[in-house]
Each structure stands twice: as structure tokens, then as C-alpha cells.
Design a protein that fits this description.
Largest sheet: none
Number of strands: 0
Structural class: mainly alpha
Oligomer: single chain
Strand content: under 5%
Length: about 80
């Protein structure tokens, strides 16, 4: 497994996939689990990340949204098979 940098699209894709496949999330419906994970990562960005440059947070949020779309598209494609 390769290393990815915090805040990149690849980082958020891995985080989303990891948490969505986690046993704790399997108790929720897939859509509810995805929303929970998204909100958790969003809260991490705005409440935990210490950063003096607000543009970094904005870029991270943009990357989280892109990753969420990619993971969602992959999940929809897999369920359509």
C-alpha cells in the first residue's frame, strides 16, 4: 500500500472506503453510512485541523467532495452489476 498525503483526493477516497467497509457502518443503510462518514471527515477538517491558511481547508474540502463523488460513483456502478 502506498502512502498518500493528508487532504488529497486519494487520502479521502481511502478514508471513505475504509469507514464504509468498517463493521460499525454496516449496521446503517449505505446512504446513511456515507453521510455519517462525510460529516465525520468534514468535522475533522473544520474542527480538528489546525491551519492558519484558510485556503488549505477550502482545498481539502474540495478534495473531500471530489473523493465522495468518485467513491459514490464506484459504489453505484458496483451495485448496478
Amino acid at each position: 500500500m502506498s502512502t498518500v498525503l493528508f487532504g488529497t483526493v486519494e487520502y479521502y477516497e481511502r478514508e471513505l472506503i475504509y469507514y464504509l467497509t468498517d463493521a460499525a457502518m454496516n449496521n446503517s443503510t449505505r446512504g446513511d453510512a456515507a453521510k455519517k462518514v462525510f460529516k465525520m471527515l468534514e468535522a475533522e477538517l473544520f474542527n480538528v485541523l489546525l491551519c492558519t491558511d484558510e485556503s488549505v481547508r477550502i482545498q481539502c474540502m474540495h478534495n473531500l467532495l471530489k473523493a465522495f463523488g468518485t467513491v459514490s460513483d464506484k459504489a453505484l456502478a458496483a451495485s448496478a452489476r
